[in-house]
Specification:
The complex is a heterodimer. Chain A contains six helices and five strands; from the N terminus they run H-E-H-E-H-E-H-E-H-E-H. A three-stranded parallel beta sheet of chain A has the order 4-3-5, sandwiched between helices. In chain A, strand 1, helix 2 and strand 2 form a beta-alpha-beta unit. By secondary structure, chain B is an alpha+beta fold. The chains are: A alpha/beta, B alpha+beta.
């Protein structure tokens, strides 16, 4: 392992010297950032090679604590979890939403509107929409929240 | 959640639309794109129209999606 690391380091040093300019590599996914950090890869990079954290997707920027809360809510009989499919396999403490499947408490939705419909159809349950994401999903979440308030849907 | 697909608005009542992409039809909202009209091509993301798209762009995307669909049917799939 150490030998391979050394070899990789030599290759990187050699390549960077040859290019004689700064190389910037973007980490596309937050999980890359985490792996690189955990394995100490930054410490062996040559000076001319820089890793930049990329945009990150809604899944990998979701706080671990948030996922654990969702998992805890999924165990409650009075709750229904509505989530985009992306979150279903994200691990938290003691499993993922997928391991709760095919439990009736977790529903995959394609839209925040579907989550709201779930609340209309299940007045005896509190529907919790896993509102992950930023620019592209946050407005849709806001629309559903506004609609729920306007229509007095109190279990959403 | 990270995929947005161009689709045509084939029904529109207030901000409730029915959209069509490659023969697939589903419900979507135009709340975030109030200028969208019946017959417009829009980009649908997580059940919401988020912008207008032109015919050429939509055509290119549909073509790529069809390629992915065909990929599963081809004999020489990439192994490994």
């Amino acid at each position: 392992m150490l030998e391979r690391t050394q070899k990789a380091q030599n290759l990187m040093n050699h390549a960077c010297k040859k290019l004689a300019r700064q190389i910037n590599i973007m980490e596309v996914c937050g999980t890359h950032t985490v792996s690189i950090f955990r394995n100490g890869i930054r410490t062996i990079l040559p000076a001319g090679l820089k890793l930049l954290s990329g945009p990150g997707c809604p899944v990998c920027v979701t706080d671990q604590g948030y996922i654990d809360i969702v998992l805890a809510l999924a165990d409650r009989k009075d709750c229904l979890i509505a989530t985009y499919g992306d979150m279903i396999r994200v691990p938290g403490k003691g499993g993922s939403l997928e391991t709760k499947q095919p439990g009736p408490n977790v529903k995959i939705v394609l839209s925040s509107e579907d989550a709201l419909q779930l609340a209309r159809d299940n007045p005896d349950k509190t529907v919790v929409f896993v509102a992950v994401g930023f620019e592209t999903t946050a407005p849709a979440t806001a629309v559903a929240a506004k609609e729920a308030a306007a229509q007095s849907i109190s279990n959403f | 959640m990270c995929l947005a697909i161009p689709a045509r608005i084939i029904e529109l009542k207030a901000d409730n639309a029915v959209v069509d992409a490659m023969g697939n039809r589903w419900k979507a909202k135009t709340t975030l794109l109030p200028e969208a009209k019946l017959g417009d091509l829009v980009l649908i993301h997580a059940g919401f129209a988020i912008c207008l798209v032109d015919e050429e762009e939509a055509g290119k995307t549909w073509e790529l999606l069809a390629q992915i669909d065909n990929f599963g049917k081809t004999q020489n799939k990439i192994s490994g």
